[in-house]
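Might you be able to consider the sequence and fold that I enclose below?
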Amino acid sequence: MTDSTAQAENTEAKTDAPEAQAADPVAEAKREAAEFKDKLLRTLAEMENLRRRTEREVTDARVYGIASFARDVLAVADNMHRALEAIGPELREQGDAKVKVLIEGVELTERELLKSLEKNGVRKFSPQGEKFDPNVHQAVYEVPDADVPPGHVAQVVQAGYMIGERVLRPAMVGVAKAAPKPSANDNPPN
């Protein structure tokens, strides 16, 4: 290749460059517009997701914000219930008027406490006879019980509480297990 051929090619390249540069601003503007549109759409989607997340967090805070306080109040409700259970039927019937008034006052206080908890979204549940669910029940022991199918709640030691759809405190339960089958060795010979 000679110097004149190289110069001719350089001249052609220089003349082609202004045409490419003239087309470039339009293509560049279209590319930038597409980038900005993409950024805008992503930002709008992100803002919508943020709005939804914030709404959900505000709702959760409104519903579950009292969970810690309610958990503390449950101890009071349990003590009221235990106090009422400790009073035998004889004392309820044979006690003097002052004792009967005291018992009625404790019963009324327990009902009002439970009503206040329910008003704030906390509800009591007693799963007697239900199938054992580790999400809402806490197994304390197993008990052989022919009347209740195995894997079901045979006894409720302590009632559970829900706040909204969440477990505030699981119910403490005794779970039925299959009664042992008598073996051939267990039967005495006749």
In short: The chain has a mean pLDDT of 83.
